[in-house]
Amino acid sequence: MCVTTEKMQKDMTALQDAFHPHCIVCGGQHNRGLKLSFQACDNGGVEGRFTCSRLFQGYEGFLHGGVISALLDGAMTNCLFACGKTAMTGELTVRFLFPALVDCKVIVRAWIKKSRPPLHTMESELQQAGRVVARATAKFMEVPDACIAARNS
Fold first, then answer.
1. Domain membership of residue 23 as a residue range
2. Measured between alpha carbons, how far is 18 from 41 in angstroms, rounded to an integer?
3. To the nearest whole number, what is the mean pLDDT of the chain?
4. What's the CATH code of the domain at 138?
């Protein structure tokens, strides 16, 4: 269980609203998205809880691997948001350890492993029933101010 930190939560929410309103994982304005809510934790990471609907299955009864990957990636993005950083995935490696069942809750967590701006090395994990079912590592590159300005014009 994570204990939230108010400043990180506000930073994360502000960057979500500015850059991710239509994100399929965390965007509140995506009408078919997962609308996953993350909490910033006092250890610098984030945590989100999600019930895996059958809408997201691959094999009958199991959560699709692409959805698992998206959850892990989304958690890492939101972890960076919580730290006041806007960055995009440059590399993502996912290790599937066990199948994740649909119609069951999962907990997804992410944290920064190493940060040397503009590059951030991230880690995340997906747990179900107290067991880690998937892990990911990723490299994120900060979004240059010029890209942000171009997007807003």
1. 6-152
2. 21
3. 90
4. 3.10.129.10
CA angle 107, 113, 117 (to 5 degrees): 125
The whole-model pTM stands at 0.90
Secondary structure (3-state) at 36: coil
CB of 52 closer than 8 Å to CB of 106: yes
Q: In this structure, are residues 96 and 63 in contact, taking their beta carbons and an 8 Å threshold?
A: no
Q: Tokens standing for 153?
A: 């014009």
Which residue from 86, 2, 68, 89 is spatially nearest to 38, judged by alpha carbons? 2
pLDDT tens digits along 59-102: 999 999 999 999 999 999 999 999 999 999 999 999 999 999 99
Q: What is the pLDDT of residue 117?
A: 93
